[in-house]
């Protein structure tokens, strides 16, 4: 990889700024000054130092965000604020993207990464990765709804969903529930409840596969995954 790309990826500046740092003699590779921005290095094997301090290169970034409502799960949009707009510059250099999507008004767990292979595995219909949501429902959720969801319900377009696990936390004029599904159809949770004559008034994703939402994260906040969390995802 070109040395300027390595440094830019790690947040040392734009390609232009990195080029100046190289010319100023701030960078050594295996003890030798490198001034040519086009010089290729192996960031996994070569010893790269910046002003005498060793650089730890990494290829991938894994972020957990507590997505706020009103923000869309996209990398860019000409009219709406996106989850990428919430990231710090030091994380943006890795060019992460959201793994899957949450509706604009839905809160909760959103994974962002630049690891395309992991993203593909998590989103592949063949993997059946479970996703659990907490929701507030207008109307009384009943045992019959649990049975209906377990059998799969027919959506407004005629599609019959795969079985979902519905847990009633509180039932009444409004009901609190948790729903685990293994698909990701457009507005699926909302449409599943519409299929049984009820309306979702609040929706929050609390888990995706083995990854649980860190409840200490405020809306709009994010953090890097721990090594343990990354291993759980890699070993799916």
UniProtKB/TrEMBL annotation:
<dbReference type="InterPro" id="IPR050343">
    <property type="entry name" value="RsuA_PseudoU_synthase"/>
</dbReference>
<feature type="domain" description="RNA-binding S4">
    <location>
        <begin position="1"/>
        <end position="59"/>
    </location>
</feature>
<dbReference type="InterPro" id="IPR018496">
    <property type="entry name" value="PsdUridine_synth_RsuA/RluB_CS"/>
</dbReference>
<dbReference type="InterPro" id="IPR020094">
    <property type="entry name" value="TruA/RsuA/RluB/E/F_N"/>
</dbReference>
<keyword id="KW-0413">Isomerase</keyword>
<dbReference type="InterPro" id="IPR000748">
    <property type="entry name" value="PsdUridine_synth_RsuA/RluB/E/F"/>
</dbReference>
<dbReference type="GO" id="GO:0000455">
    <property type="term" value="P:enzyme-directed rRNA pseudouridine synthesis"/>
</dbReference>
<dbReference type="InterPro" id="IPR002942">
    <property type="entry name" value="S4_RNA-bd"/>
</dbReference>
<dbReference type="GO" id="GO:0005829">
    <property type="term" value="C:cytosol"/>
</dbReference>
<dbReference type="InterPro" id="IPR042092">
    <property type="entry name" value="PsdUridine_s_RsuA/RluB/E/F_cat"/>
</dbReference>
<dbReference type="GO" id="GO:0003723">
    <property type="term" value="F:RNA binding"/>
</dbReference>
<dbReference type="Pfam" id="PF01479">
    <property type="entry name" value="S4"/>
</dbReference>
<dbReference type="GO" id="GO:0120159">
    <property type="term" value="F:rRNA pseudouridine synthase activity"/>
</dbReference>
<keyword id="KW-0694">RNA-binding</keyword>
<dbReference type="InterPro" id="IPR020103">
    <property type="entry name" value="PsdUridine_synth_cat_dom_sf"/>
</dbReference>
<protein>
    <recommendedName>
        <fullName>Pseudouridine synthase</fullName>
        <ecNumber>5.4.99.-</ecNumber>
    </recommendedName>
</protein>
<dbReference type="InterPro" id="IPR006145">
    <property type="entry name" value="PsdUridine_synth_RsuA/RluA"/>
</dbReference>
<dbReference type="Pfam" id="PF00849">
    <property type="entry name" value="PseudoU_synth_2"/>
</dbReference>
<comment type="similarity">
    <text>Belongs to the pseudouridine synthase RsuA family.</text>
</comment>
<dbReference type="InterPro" id="IPR036986">
    <property type="entry name" value="S4_RNA-bd_sf"/>
</dbReference>
């Amino acid at each position: 990889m070109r040395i300027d790309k390595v440094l830019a990826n790690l947040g040392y500046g734009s390609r232009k700024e990195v080029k100046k740092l190289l010319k100023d003699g701030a960078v050594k590779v295996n003890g030798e000054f490198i001034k040519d921005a086009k010089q290729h290095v192996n960031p996994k094997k070569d010893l790269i130092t910046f002003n005498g301090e060793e650089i730890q290169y990494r290829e991938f970034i894994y972020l957990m965000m507590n997505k706020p409502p009103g923000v869309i799960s996209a990398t860019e949009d000409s009219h709406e604020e996106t989850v990428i707009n919430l990231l710090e510059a030091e994380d943006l250099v890795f060019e992460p993207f959201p793994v899957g999507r949450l509706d604009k008004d839905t809160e909760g767990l959103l994974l962002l990464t630049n690891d395309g292979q992991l993203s593909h595995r998590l989103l592949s219909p063949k993997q059946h990765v479970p996703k659990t949501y907490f929701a507030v429902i207008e109307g009384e959720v009943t045992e019959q709804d649990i049975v209906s969801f377990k059998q799969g319900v027919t959506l407004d377009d005629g599609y019959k969903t795969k079985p979902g696990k519905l847990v009633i936390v509180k039932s009444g004029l409004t009901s609190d529930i948790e729903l685990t599904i293994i698909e990701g159809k457009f507005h699926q949770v909302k449409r599943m409840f519409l299929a049984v004559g009820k309306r979702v008034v609040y929706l929050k994703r609390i888990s995706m596969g083995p990854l649980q939402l860190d409840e200490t994260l405020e809306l709009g906040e994010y953090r890097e995954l721990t090594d343990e969390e990354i291993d759980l995802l890699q070993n799916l």
